[in-house]
Design a protein that fits this description.
- The protein is of the alpha+beta class.
- The chain has two domains: 2-91, 2-Layer Sandwich (Alpha-Beta Plaits), CATH 3.30.70; 94-184, Alpha-Beta Plaits.
- It has helices at 15-22, 58-67, 69-76, 103-109, 128-132, 166-171; strands at residues 2-9, 34-42, 48-55, 84-90, 94-97, 112-119, 139-146, 150-157, 176-184, 190-191.
- The longest helix is centred in the N-terminal third of the chain and has 10 residues, at 58-67.
- The protein is globular, with a radius of gyration of 17 Å.
- Residues 2-88 form the DUF4937 domain.
- InterPro entries: Dimeric_a/b-barrel (IPR011008), DUF4937 (IPR032555).
- This is DUF4937 domain-containing protein.
Length: 196
Amino acid sequence: MLIKVINSFVKQDKRYAFSYSQKHWSALAHIEGFLGQFGGWNIVEPTDACIIGIWKDTDSYRSFMNDVHDDIFYKNGQKASYDKLETTLSSNGQFVKGIYHHTRSSIVGANYMMITSISHNNHDKSLIPFTLISERDRCLSTFVFADEHTSTFISLFGYAPPDATKHVLQKNKIPVQQQNIYKLEKEWTVLQTFSS
């Protein structure tokens, strides 16, 4: 599974334009190998928009980037709606079931996501799943990926925003680089269309 994380930095007066152009990515639903896309606004930093793309594998993603991406991107005018864009790609993504056991139902049912990045160190990795999510939060599922220095957890939640757990992780000596909570925009969600 390939996971793409896109962070866009959007001025307050361009939020509507960004959101409007983000809806035009619905064409992704028909692309071979595309599984889903969702995103929203940071609840603390309202100029931070984060979009997550989920792909079957690297080959299908590369085919999309070579053949389709630029056509959608330049037609929807999104480039003019943000100041800066940062993209992270990982081809070693995994889906970890929570209350929901499938990618599609997790994305449909989610209203919030929490993204937590943790530095690799000599910490006890068995503590992470138990300290990442507050006991009162009902995590629908989590997407996980890692590179040489960092593990990233994208946890999806239903109708209530999750509690930030950075302090709990740090208390257990787990080196958290960053943790952000986003309110998802349902109109940004795109899911794979099943062919008959």
